[in-house]
Amino acid sequence: MRISVIGCGYLGAVHASALAELGHDVVGIDVDERKIAALRAGRPPFFEPGLPEILSSAAASGRLRFSTDIADAAGADVHFLAVGTPQTIGGTSADLRYVDAAFEGLLPHLAEGSLIVGKSTVPVGTAARLAARLAKEAPHANLAWNPEFLREGFAVKDTLEPDRLVYGVADERAASVLDQVYRAAIEAGTPRIVTDYATAELVKVAANAFLATKISFINAMSEIADATGADVTALADAIGHDVRIGRRFLNAGVGFGGGCLPKDIRAFTARAEELGRGDSLAFLKEVDAINMRQRQRVVDLAIDVLGGSVFRKKVAVLGVTFKPDSDDVRDSPALDVAVHLKGLGAEVVATDPEGVENARMRHPQLDYTTSAREALTGADLVVLVTEWREYRALDPIETGRLVAERRIIDGRNVLDLHAWRAAGWQVRGLGRP
Ligand SMILES: NC(=O)C1=CN([C@@H]2O[C@H](COP(=O)(O)OP(=O)(O)OC[C@H]3O[C@@H](n4cnc5c(N)ncnc54)[C@H](O)[C@@H]3O)[C@@H](O)[C@H]2O)C=CC1
Ligand SMILES: O=C(O)[C@H]1O[C@H](OP(=O)(O)OP(=O)(O)OC[C@H]2O[C@@H](n3ccc(=O)[nH]c3=O)[C@H](O)[C@@H]2O)[C@H](O)[C@@H](O)[C@@H]1O
């Protein structure tokens, strides 16, 4: 099929490459000239494992092109909208200006029978609004909403082998077009839920709200564990054995960040308020508050471990991205902690295998290095806030030879406390004795 993907960020670049890999003829479109130039040269504009490989194989096949001109979307059978829906500046709702601009830009280029498919995460009601506009401006075209559930770091696999496909459609015709797009996944047995626009939009934000709630739940337990001397990791293991609960997403620590969970729960709450149902989602404000508190908890631990002040202390911050295997620093708890410590007068050296460039653009006041060894050398305190494999694998004895003082805060509860303590380290975790 001929497909356009409007918006080539973390979602769209992977989506476009994966669809080309599946045999479709794809054009990826973005207003960001630098991004498009990089993609054209076969270079992903961000770090995502597996993306360089599918990008180059799709480009070599001649089935994947990139453009900054929306007119190049003309002639496609299916147009995916994958533009950003960030939090509004100064507010909590989703900023729909990019979705609206991409949609309006597409209107003059829609072929007879073509389908616009929304992928971006939007407030419930957006698809119905756009469908009404489409019926007026381009009644020969159709609209579907097909939310995306990929995780950064696993984006390629999640796109090629999704857990489920959700189609929000107004008629069967749109569903059968999407079946053609996703034929490979459907033939592999991927569950497919065909529903209305509102349900599809809600599935997406409900899933993220649930995941966020699970994380804040375990972080709340970790606060109680701290007050009682209990161990939240053992607690998570124990409750996680109950298949109704499950162990995944019960890792207590510095909390969730990124370009999605935080802004999605806020936008969902704002939308519920608009609908006069603010009470129904009031708990998500608590989920958000618990989450944001974890960053402060790590800073407070640092102050405590350093005897009341971080001023002029050399602090090595391990990790700046919101999670490992990504270069994404949007709403990153790790970067927040680093900035806060710096604000308190600490001499922060932040390190990350992939996130330094993005972090520096946002917070140029921090000192950065991509070498963990360099960051650790002479440190009075080590703060692990993103659990990259290389940080989890640090050897306590060898690391002990680099630092000035053997003090470490495990902000992700991933270190073997016994091994580190045996090597003479003072180790503090969140919710661990
Ligand atoms: N990043 C992720 O893991 C996932 C993101 N989502 C959702 O997907 C959407 C996109 O997210 P990301 O890719 O992370 O954002 P992003 O910020 O990385 O990418 C958005 C892209 O859209 C481009 N853009 C903006 N206006 C445009 C226009 N009028 N025409 C063409 N391109 C335009 C921007 O230049 C940017 O490259 C959001 O709604 C997000 O919530 C959903 C699932 C996973
Ligand atoms: O809508 C989106 O964009 C995506 O948001 C999340 O994906 P992502 O943000 O890439 O990353 P996650 O793996 O969900 O992690 C999110 C945050 O939660 C934190 N987390 C995760 C799990 C856990 O147990 N504890 C915890 O603190 C991570 O460190 C990270 O900061 C969802 O998992 C995806 O399904 C969804 O498509």
Explain what you see.
Belongs to the UDP-glucose/GDP-mannose dehydrogenase family. The protein has 433 residues and is of the alpha/beta class. It has two domains: 2-195, Rossmann fold (3-Layer(aba) Sandwich), CATH 3.40.50; 196-433, Rossmann fold, CATH 3.40.50. It contains 18 helices and 14 strands. An eight-stranded mixed β-sheet has the order 3-2-1-4-5-6-7-8, with helices on both faces. A six-stranded parallel β-sheet has the order 11-10-9-12-13-14. Helix 5 (126-137) links the parallel strand 5 (115-118) and strand 6. The protein is globular. The mean pLDDT is 98. 1,4-dihydronicotinamide adenine dinucleotide binds at residues 6-12, 29-32, 35, 82-85, 98, 101-102, 105, 120-121, 148, 150, 152, 259-260. Residues 6-12, 29-32, 35, 82-85, 98, 101-102, 105, 120-121, 148, 150, 152, 259-260 line the site of 1,4-dihydronicotinamide adenine dinucleotide (NAI).
